[in-house]
């Protein structure tokens, strides 16, 4: 078994210094230490040093224990001998306490008596994140200052806006920071999305928000947000206000709302169906459209057909579904030859709410010469729905000129079905799979065209 690294002693902050007017105390600055892989915050404070010995110099220690508490360890003097202090805790500094017989004795602890032994360490920042300094208290809609951010309220339930400066040390300011904040790590407008904020010093301190809008104010932005979850059991944020301690992390786009209620059933409508009547009691439906796959053309001698494109896919949540008949179309696979797949659609009627889904059929694979161009998948750009996706593109047909060696292009796959396999020399093309797969190309024969797979309309019904 491999050894496990145990980290003890890494420090940020926690500097030990003499007082402005030296006396027998030292000042410890705020910071944190890593104690056996656990991050412990350290509160600023003063530590009193024991009085000097009459004849022997002494070395004492300022340390931090496993609870993050600053401790003082006095060196020992016994039998005329001095033993320097030791500790298994995190050591911040050694402090020389000069004896009263020493010529440098002043009865105080000066800066020359303090030896800094901290092992300084900066906690890493994950990729595709931003670092900011948190401003506590309720903030107004104004630029919070370079590198800063704040909330408009101090309790989770009341937070509605996050004001964020573009002057982050991570990206160096706008436009890069502006682009990130419009859609997290994706760098393009994605709304809504989840924002996770957490402390580098105490990674367990986090808050998750759903960002619903972005307003640009030139040097800062206003993120409209709603509270989702936090590790804290308190009423509001407990993030550190230390410089660049809060990490902004893109936690994913918010998916479209799924259909709700009790599941009534799943209806699979096949090619040839033109009407759909909802099951009694249906209030909400999740409608998925799979278009037909593209066909492939005939490959003449010394040519190879490219594969047909897979049919496109779209899906939408339909609310308050009307009880009457709905017009639907389920795209057929492209007929063997230079023929695209048919489109699949759902037409709203009556009280239907939501976006009517439409998926576009895959295009046919070609064969104009020794290498057939592939058929394109059904384009999502001209489809409609809460979700739209292209079908897979067909592969090119390849034929070695002056030989009898070649292979047809692989048919493009769809959301539901695989593409037909490209075939070897003197073999006809293969039909696209159900549902919506593009046909695979053949080569070097006179009759090698093949059809695409038929589409599908799947409707999941809920009360």
Molecular structure report:
The longest helix has 8 residues. The chain is 2% helix and 33% strand. The chain has a seven-stranded mixed barrel. Strands 21-31-23-24-28 form a five-stranded antiparallel sheet, with no helix packed on it. The two termini are 55 Å apart. It contains one helix and 31 strands. It has 463 residues and is an all-beta fold.
List strands and helices in order, with pairings.
Blueprint: E1 10-13, E2 16-18, E3 25-28, E4 31-35, E5 38-42, E6 45-48, E7 58-64, E8 70-73, E9 76-78, E10 81-83, E11 90-97, E12 114-116, E13 119-120, E14 129-135, E15 148-151, E16 161-165, H1 176-183, E17 193-199, E18 206-216, E19 220-230, E20 246-253, E21 263-270, E22 275-276, E23 284-290, E24 313-318, E25 326-329, E26 344-346, E27 358-359, E28 387-389, E29 398-399, E30 406-407, E31 456-462
Parallel strand pairs: 1-13, 14-15
Antiparallel strand pairs: 1-4, 2-3, 3-6, 4-5, 7-8, 7-11, 9-10, 11-12, 14-20, 15-16, 16-19, 17-18, 17-20, 18-19, 21-31, 22-25, 23-24, 23-31, 24-28, 25-26, 26-27, 29-30
């Amino acid at each position: 078994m491999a050894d496990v690294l145990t980290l003890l002693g890494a420090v940020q902050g926690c500097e030990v210094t003499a007082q402005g007017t030296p006396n027998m105390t030292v000042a410890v600055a705020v910071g944190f230490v890593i104690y056996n892989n656990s991050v412990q915050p350290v509160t600023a404070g003063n530590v009193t040093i024991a009085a000097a010995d009459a004849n022997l110099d002494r070395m004492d220690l300022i340390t931090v224990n496993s609870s993050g508490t600053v401790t003082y360890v006095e060196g020992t003097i016994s039998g005329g001998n001095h033993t320097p202090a030791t500790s298994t805790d995190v050591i911040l500094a050694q402090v020389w306490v000069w004896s009263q017989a020493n010529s440098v004795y002043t009865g105080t602890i000066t800066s020359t008596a303090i030896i800094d032994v901290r092992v300084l360490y900066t906690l890493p920042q994950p990729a595709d994140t931003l670092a900011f300094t948190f401003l506590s208290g309720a903030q107004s809609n104004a630029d919070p200052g370079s590198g800063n951010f704040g909330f408009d309220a101090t309790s989770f339930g009341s937070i509605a806006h996050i004001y964020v400066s573009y002057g982050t040390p991570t990206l160096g300011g706008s436009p890069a920071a502006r682009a990130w904040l419009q859609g997290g790590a994706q760098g393009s407008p994605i709304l809504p999305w989840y924002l996770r904020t957490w402390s580098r010093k105490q990674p367990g301190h986090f808050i998750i928000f759903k960002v619903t809008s972005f307003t640009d104010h030139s040097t800062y932005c206003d993120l409209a947000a709603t509270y989702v979850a936090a590790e804290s059991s308190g009423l509001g944020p407990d993030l550190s206000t230390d410089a660049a301690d809060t990490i902004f992390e893109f936690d994913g786009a918010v998916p479209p709302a799924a259909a709700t209620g009790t599941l009534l059933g799943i209806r699979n409508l096949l090619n040839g169906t033109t009407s759909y009547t909802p099951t009694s009691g249906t209030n909400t439906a999740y409608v998925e459209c799979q278009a037909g796959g593209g066909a492939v053309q005939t490959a003449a001698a010394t040519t190879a057909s490219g594969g047909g494109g897979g049919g496109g896919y779209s899906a939408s949540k339909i609310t308050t579904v009307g009880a009457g008949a709905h017009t639907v179309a389920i795209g057929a696979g492209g007929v063997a030859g230079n023929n695209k797949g048919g489109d699949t659609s759902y037409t709203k009627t009556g009280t239907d709410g939501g976006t009517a889904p439409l998926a576009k059929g895959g295009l046919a694979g070609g064969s104009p010469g020794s290498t057939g161009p592939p058929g394109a998948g059904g384009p999502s750009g001209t489809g409609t729905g809460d979700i739209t996706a292209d079908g897979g593109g067909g592969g090119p047909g390849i034929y070695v000129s002056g030989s009898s060696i070649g292979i047809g292009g692989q048919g493009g796959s769809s959301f539901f079905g695989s593409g037909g396999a490209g075939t070897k020399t003197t073999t006809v093309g293969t039909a696209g799979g159900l549902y919506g797969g593009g046909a695979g190309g053949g080569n070097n024969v006179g009759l090698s065209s093949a059809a695409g797979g038929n589409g599908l309309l799947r409707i999941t019904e809920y009360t």
